[in-house]
Amino acid sequence: MIEGQSIAIIGAGIGGLAAALALRLRGADVKVFEQAEALGEVGAGLQISPNGAAVLKALGVAPQLRALSLRAKAVDLCDYRQGRLVCRLDLARYVPDLEYCFVHRADLVQLLYEACRAKGVAFEFSQTVSDLGAPDAPRITTQSGLSCTPDFVVGADGVKSMMRPALGNMSVPRFSGQVAWRAIVPNTCDHPDHAVVHMAPGRHMVSYPLRDRSGVNLVMVQERSQWAEEGWAQRDAPRNVQAAFCDFGGMAKSLLGGLDKVHLWGLFLHPVASCWGQGKMALVGDAAHPTLPFLAQGANMALEDAWVFAGSLDTQAPLQQRLDVYQARRKARVERTVRAAVGNAWKYHLSAPPLRWAAHSAMRAFAAIAPRQLVGQFDWLYRHDVIAEQS
Ligand SMILES: Cc1cc2nc3c(=O)[nH]c(=O)nc-3n(C[C@H](O)[C@H](O)[C@H](O)COP(=O)(O)OP(=O)(O)OC[C@H]3O[C@@H](n4cnc5c(N)ncnc54)[C@H](O)[C@@H]3O)c2cc1C
To answer: Which atom of ligand 1 is least distant from the CA of 11?
Structure first.
């Protein structure tokens, strides 16, 4: 049982905050260490699919999520030239009971932070953890000299996790040959409440509205050999994106014209961690399994991890057995998700005209004949309910 146990969490991202809340709701004494000074307006849009929304509901924040997000009605796959629709996954019509929404990352982080504070989770900002101690004897030390010896430590410290190698996961990330830019632009084209994937040879762009629909979130992906750093803070000039996507027409063209502040990040392939928990330490979220963004599952998998981790830890089995249960419940699902994300880029980026034409025609035909099956191919992902699984 974890009631009264002291648990330190490294990182106040979505994984760390959701884990903090889930553990606190089970009675643990939780403190979060975050390197940033505060939880500011960082990041851009996230898609929360029904599997992630189920966790937020179980954490008691569904009403706040609804107030801050837009309900997604469909996912449209379009050709890049004039924006012609290839096929539509009609979320509103075929999965009315499931919530799929668009939310600003900063709003979701703030919402989880406030829920944590209301339940008594403690926070230490401007504290970069620099040392963890040993897995069996954790001792957290921060760059500014704070130190503590909690009963357990959770590494929710993202893609450049320090706990990941500390648990023996030594793999080196490999550049995927793709980079992504992200930006929020003014909604000058009355963008529908759809996620629109504009597909082009070697590139694609995803757009969807955010908040009060005054802005549109854009992610532009390009295959290229020139390497770019992995991380969320690197800026780039709008003209570089506009040049790379200059042949896009229709709505995409007008959205690209509104670019002002643009971030660039290199997309890297990381093997899923082979060890998720050892001694008195465990990983959640990107720290265990960074994924390419092509299935929009980074935040959703972190939410699922957080819930499953808290439930797995809160039993009377020997500690290592609890950690093994956590890993066994998560690893295969996460690996499947990471693989599916890699596969999507290939589908979106088809180059050879005959293959591209044939693939788009097949998608159109499938959508017309079997629209339910088109959405249903994602049932394994969206309808998976970690709350029901655990109860
Ligand atoms: C600044 C930022 C912006 C992002 N923007 C987007 C976006 O626009 N769209 C999108 O789809 N995804 C975005 N992401 C990624 C997305 O949030 C994650 O893929 C997903 O939510 C999983 O979250 P996570 O909690 O595992 O990791 P993250 O969200 O990466 O959170 C990790 C947290 O750990 C903190 N941290 C790391 N090392 C230490 C340390 N040594 N000591 C203390 N704290 C530490 C980081 O500051 C961060 O707050 C962003 C992530 C970050 C950090």
So the answer is: 34
